[in-house]
């Protein structure tokens, strides 16, 4: 589990395809204080460390993961947001993030305001149904608060600190972005699925 608080921006040193797997090597300094087999969220995608050095780590990525995330667009020299898994005694500063990307969004507008920047993100209806105003969403591994929801898009407002410590400033209008919706909303939907055709009463709610 992750929190969406980026620890470091890493640099992709190489990414190579080997049969149905891709092997990625990322240069980093802070997040390499881990062990083999541990997890690192890379642009919001949970990867398992297969090799490790003082200033780098390597991971294998399945083709399905490449195809369904922005990892398909990265190349040597690309910058990526990195976060180690949350320790059991850690502080949950962001929100609960699994590192499982639900889908891709596209940046349709970037608006510079006085002390923040608004990113307008288009997304599918399947994604948008889990996006709520003032709720949490993960974009490229970053825990963010939704400031507005439209019919086919949503808006997040980014403060200078987040811009400085992540790869957001490198994104432009038209770029794709990984989206992970809040797991709590998806669990609630699953729990209530059998009762969709039934009238929700106090007795039903007490069962939960």
Q: Which properties best describe this structure?
A:
208 residues, 6-stranded antiparallel barrel, 15% helix, mainly beta
**Main sheet makeup:** 6 strands, antiparallel, barrel
Tell me what portion of residues adopts beta-strand conformation: 35-45%
| Overall radius of gyration | 18 Å
Shape: globular
Please trace the helix and strand order, writing H or E for each element: EEEEEHEEEHEEEHEHH
Q: What level of helicity do the residues show? A: 10-25%
Q: What is the count of helical runs?
A: 5
What number is the mean pLDDT?
A: 91
Stretches where pLDDT is under 50 for at least 5 consecutive residues are none
Main sheet strand line-up: 1-2-5-4-3-6
Distance between the termini: 25 Å
Keywords: Repeat, Riboflavin biosynthesis, Transferase
Catalytic activity: 2 6,7-dimethyl-8-(1-D-ribityl)lumazine + H(+) = 5-amino-6-(D-ribitylamino)uracil + riboflavin
InterPro entries: ATP_synth_asu-like_sf (IPR023366), Lumazine-bd (IPR001783), Lumazine-bd_dom (IPR026017), Riboflavin_synthase-like_b-brl (IPR017938)
GO molecular function: riboflavin synthase activity
Structural notes for this entry:
The chain has 208 residues and is mostly beta strands. 15% of the residues lie in helices and 40% in strands. The chain contains five helices and twelve strands. It has helices spanning 63-68, 125-128, 160-165, 183-192, 202-206, and strands spanning 8-18, 21-27, 39-42, 45-53, 56-62, 79-84, 103-112, 117-122, 136-139, 142-149, 153-158, 176-181. It has a six-stranded antiparallel β-barrel. It has a six-stranded antiparallel beta barrel with strand order 7-8-11-10-9-12. A hairpin with a 2-residue loop joins strand 3 and strand 4. It is globular and about 55 Å long.
């Amino acid at each position: 589990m992750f929190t969406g608080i980026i620890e470091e921006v890493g640099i992709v040193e190489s990414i190579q395809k080997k049969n149905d797997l891709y092997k990625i090597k990322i240069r980093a300094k802070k997040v390499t204080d881990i062990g083999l087999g541990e997890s690192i969220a890379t642009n919001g995608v949970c990867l398992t460390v297969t090799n490790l050095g003082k200033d780098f780590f390597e991971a294998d990525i399945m083709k399905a993961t490449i195809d369904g995330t922005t990892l398909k667009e990265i190349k040597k020299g690309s910058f990526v947001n990195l976060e180690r898994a949350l320790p059991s005694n850690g502080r949950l500063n962001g929100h609960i993030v699994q590192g499982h990307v639900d889908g891709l969004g596209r940046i349709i507008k970037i608006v510079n305001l006085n002390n923040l920047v608004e990113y307008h993100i288009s997304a599918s209806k399947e994604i948008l149904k889990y996006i709520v105003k003032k709720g949490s969403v993960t974009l490229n591994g970053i825990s963010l608060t939704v400031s507005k929801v439209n019919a086919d898009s949503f808006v997040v407002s980014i403060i200078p600190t987040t811009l400085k410590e992540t790869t957001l400033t490198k994104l432009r209008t038209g770029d794709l972005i990984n989206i992970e919706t809040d797991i709590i909303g998806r669990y609630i939907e699953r729990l209530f699925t059998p009762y969709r055709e039934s009238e929700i009463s106090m007795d039903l709610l007490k069962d939960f």
